[in-house]
Structures are given as structure tokens and as C-alpha cells.
Design goal:
This protein has about 450 residues and is an alpha/beta fold. It contains 12 helices and 19 strands. The longest helix has 24 residues. The chain is globular, with a radius of gyration of 23 Å. The relative contact order is 0.08. Bound molecules: S-adenosylmethionine, iron/sulfur cluster and FE3-S4 cluster.
Amino acid sequence: MRCAPSRYYLRTYGCQMNENDSERIAGMLESVGFSPTDSPEDADIILLNTCCVRRNAEDKVYGLIGQLKRLKDQNPDLILAVCGCMVQQEAELEVIQKDYPYVDLVFGTHNLHRLPELLDQVQSGRRRVIEVWDSEGEIVEGLPTKRQTGFQAWITVMYGCNNFCSYCIVPYVRGRERSRSRDSILEEVRSLVADGFCEFTLLGQNVNSYGRDLPDKYDFASLMRDVSRIPGVKRVRFTTSHPKDMSERLIDVIAEEDTICEHIHLPLQAGSNRILARMNRGYTRDDYLRLTDLIRAKIPEAAITTDLIVGFPGETRPDFEDTLDMVRRVRFDSAFTFAFSPRKGTPAAGMDEQVEHQERMDRLYELIETQNAISKERNLEMVGRVYELLVEGPSSKDSARYQGRTRTNKIVSFDPQGDLENGSSVWVRITRAKTWTLEGERVPDD
Ligand code: SAM
Ligand code: SF4
Ligand code: F3S
């Protein structure tokens, strides 16, 4: 029997969908009487919600599991749980089973909702419980969810991915695409609005395929329009769009609806047609340029951000230069940049012509430098102009200042001139811009 109050420490790796899963894990734990702690030393249960998209994500998890052995030795009653994408891979599950016998509980991405029951099994028998489903079941709705803030909410609208980009592990660990019903999504947003939330980010690995598995041809553009029109919704964001499926109708909806933010995250991955084909991305550089031209024509204020991989197998220097060329042509506001990381079981891991580690790193630094210069230029273009921010609280760099986010997803710090509630709107004129940061001063509301 557990003595109340018990505390949980939860560490999350990976994407926003994993963060959203962690909010459900936290919600379930709190609904059975746990309270959160920021310190693993104070916890009765430690959970690691893992990611395996690149090797270094996994290395971090193994590093932490290793360190936590000391706490287990000091307190044998401590429960150590590992869940999420990493344990959906057979090989890693085996490593945890064999090499980390002090891990008490392992569960996967498809049976997260079973946490209270699995925890009960661990506690009642003080035994090890490992339950990882290898295929997805029905979407489980209505799980308790502990949101990270009181005004911004992530709404996962679809699970899984059918795209099988040749480098990517996600379809193997997250299963096939499954869309939530329109009613459950709209109901969730309405009830969050009633609780004071005003900014919503709709999440999926490829939101543009939302609805393909639903009976009534209800698609992502329609969903965005319906969410954006719910009274009380101030801002709607979404991620991630796949360039091969982004429809003109969606661009029109973003342009037309006042509450939909002008920020489009559109992963390009590579600038060479040969590499894009080997990646199985389903578009060419010209397709991508046509799409970004259309976005800029219909939504002139739009910020476009991207994901890029360098050192994909077979990528030559000219291929890499095609990526740099695309970066210069599109002038992204910012980019997440990655060195290719071979993932066991994906086609790219077995391809010939793997690029040497050092070459991958050199290309990565060159790409980052190129993009950083453009990000800075883009930010400098904002100086002197006035933007609406949604207040996010004290600045992470200087607690005397506050920070807020523009509709285009840029963080701006400013002097609050008094108390401000998180989620309220203020207007600022941008006074200073660097590669990563913007500063502004308040101006009277319009
Ligand atoms: N579904 C999104 C899409 O298709 O754009 C992205 C999902 S993934 C979680 C986020 C990013 O990780 C990808 O866009 C890609 O740039 C990067 N990524 C995925 N697999 C990778 C790998 N094996 N090596 C390096 N980067 C990878
Ligand atoms: Fe991975 Fe491609 Fe699916 Fe994105 S679309 S999750 S990169 S397989
Ligand atoms: Fe990682 Fe899983 Fe997301 S592999 S990026 S946490 S879907």
C-alpha cells in the first residue's frame, strides 16, 4: 500500500505529441492521488517518456536510467518507469529488460491509458511489469490531462503516420494514421475555452492527412475553420504539415480566419531532388517552391519554418549545396537542423554510401550558419514595427521582463509596466533583434 501523498517526477523527450502524452500521464497520475515534484530525489515514481527519432535522444535516456540506479539503491520502494516511443522498438525493449533490471515498469505508446492499472500491478505485487502493445487500438478519449499552462493547449488531432519517409522511425513506433472525430476535438476545445484557455495548437505528424480515415470526408482545413470559429478562441496553430499534402484550401482558410496564426511549419528535409526521392518525401524542390510562393502570395505576413536533415546516405557536396540554395531562396524564419541518424529497421539505415560522421557534422554547422544569418535578417526586418503578443509570463532570460509570442511564433521580451496575466494580449514595438531574441516596448492597445 502506498502512503499518501506520493510524488511523481516525469521527464519528457521528443516532440510536442509526446509532451501532450505526458500531460495525459500526469493527468492520470494526479487522478490517482500523486502530486508532481521537480526533483527525482523526492519522487516515489520516476517516469521517462522517451523518444527514438535520433540516436542522441536515446543516448540521453540511457544516460539518465543509468544515473537513476543510485536512487533505486538508496530507496528500493522507488518505482522507475520507462515509456514512449523508444520501448516500441523490440531491440531497445530487450536492452532495457536485460541490462536495466531495476526498471520496474515499461509501457508503450499504444497502451498509455493503462498506466493506473499497470502501476497498481507493480505496487500490489512489487513486481516488474512490462506491457508494450505492438499495434494500435481504438483511440482512447477523455483521459484526464494536466496542461502545462492555463492558457495554451496542445490538441492531438491524429495519431501515427503512414508516410514511411525512408529515414524515419515514427511510423514503426506510433502505428498507422488514426484521426480523432470532429466532435471529440471540438468538444475538447470548447471545454478548455470554458476553463480559460485561448491558444490551441492542433498536432499530428502530418496534419494534412487528418480525416482520411473518417467516414464523412471531413478534412483538416474544415477542422481548422471549425476550431478557429469557436467563441473564446484567440489563436489557433498547427503542426506538422507535409509539403506533399498541403492543400490550397488550407492556405485559404489560414488566410481568411482571423484567429489562425500566420505560422506554417513545413519540413523540407533536403534541397536536392535526388535526395528527396531517396527520402521518399513525395515532392521536388520545385513543388516546394511553388507551395511557399503560394503561401507568401496569399498570406504575405506568414512565417515559414522548416526541418532539415544533412548527411542523408548518398548526399554529395552538390546535393548539400542544393539544400543551402533552398534555404537562401525560401528564407525560412527558422529551421530545426539535424545530422542524419541511422535508425534500425528503416530503409535509410541500410542504404549504401553512408556519409562520414565528421562530414555530416561539418555540413550541419555550415547549414546552421547559413540559416542563422537569414533568421537574424528576418528578425531585423521586424524592428520598428508593432505586433500583438500573447503574454507567456516572466522572461526566461531576465525575470524583470516579460515575454510573449507573436502570431508568427516569435518570442519577444518587454517591460510589462505592471502585472500582466498569462494569455492576455499586449502590443509592442520591436526595438532590438538578434538571431534568437527580439526585444520590444509596449505601445497602447489598438
Ligand atoms: N512528421 C514531421 C514531418 O514529416 O515533417 C516530422 C516528424 S519528426 C518527429 C521531426 C523531424 O526529425 C523530421 O522532420 C526530421 O527532420 C527529423 N528526423 C526524423 N528522423 C530522422 C533521422 N533518422 N535522422 C535525423 N533527423 C531525423
Ligand atoms: Fe516521419 Fe515522414 Fe511521418 Fe514525418 S511524415 S513522422 S518524417 S515518416
Ligand atoms: Fe520522438 Fe516519438 Fe515524437 S520518436 S519525435 S517522441 S513521435
